[in-house]
Amino acid sequence: MAQLINRQSRGVYIIAATPFTDQGAVDHESLRRLVDFYISHGVSGLTILGMMGEANKMTGEERRAVIDTVLARSGDLPVVVGVSDPGMANLAELSRYSMDKGASGVMVTPAAGPAREDRIEAYFHDVCAAIGTDVPVCLQDFPLATGLPISSALIRRLSQACDQIVMLKHEDWPGLAKISRLRGDETAAGTKRLSILTGNGGLYLPQELQRGADGAMTGFAYPEALVQTVALHEAGRREEAEDLFDRYLPILRHEQQPGFGLGVRKYILMRRGAIASAATRAPGPKMSPTDMAEADRLMARLARALQGDLPRL
């Protein structure tokens, strides 16, 4: 059985895409192949049904089927399930279903509404009460997508007051100072440590690691880049970590285009043999022939860049 996420969790919890057929159905065979692909590249865990997993476009039955497929394939690898939902009862039900099936925790984003911290604070207290005290929570802080900024002070209050909130998915941008503040808080007696994994495609991963992040929770189509960067950093080889990471930056940057980037990510995953189709579920981005040729060129350039000597553990 996989270990539950906790305040010491580290490494790369890759955000998994959800493969669809060209007709728009969930492709469970590709999903199993994708899990194998991620595992083969050494990830520490998986996160499914996040924003880039297109969970908001799925029915409840489809979400449960995705959970079933991934957990049946992932073995003892920790799996975090995105359970955010406008309805608290739906969120609690999916959380319980996930944990009963063997998930290692759930990820929750603030509910839509006024950008007031008292409302967000009350919401997470309600979530923790609704899902039960045995369910570890990863709080997703992604104000660029949600429009709901969460201060480091509020994150700390929630982490202190709610034992279940053990992990932060940090996606504030700019946000390096927030990581520094959160880690600085932990020098005070009685302050609980918080696992911090970062998103935004990994754009700022080397700097985030240097500020005190424990790893990444994002979905770059080259998971080995994230895994090796984190491993080199952990080994104290920070310059080598940045040198390696820099080789991937052009294609990583291309994949981070708002809205369109998911199409790029899925296309690259398809070209790498991880999924059968690059289809996104409507409404979603579609790659034109020019877009595909552009991505192919970036992949070829990366392959040439990787032919040189690379720092390895």
Automatic annotation (TrEMBL):
GO CC field: cytosol
Question: Does this UniProt record's set of keywords contain Lyase?
Answer: yes
A GO molecular function annotation here is: 4-hydroxy-tetrahydrodipicolinate synthase activity
Is Transmembrane helix tagged as a keyword? Answer: no
- SMART domains from the UniProt entry: DHDPS
Matches recorded under SUPFAM superfamilies: Aldolase
Q: Where does pyruvate bind?
A: 217
Q: Could you tell me which InterPro entries the record lists for this protein?
A: Aldolase_TIM, DapA-like
* Keyword line: Lyase
Q: Which PANTHER family match?
A: 4-HYDROXY-2-OXOGLUTARATE ALDOLASE, MITOCHONDRIAL (PTHR12128:SF66), DIHYDRODIPICOLINATE SYNTHASE (PTHR12128)
Hey, which family's this protein in? Belongs to the DapA family.
Q: What is the protein name stated in its UniProt record? A: Dihydrodipicolinate synthase family protein
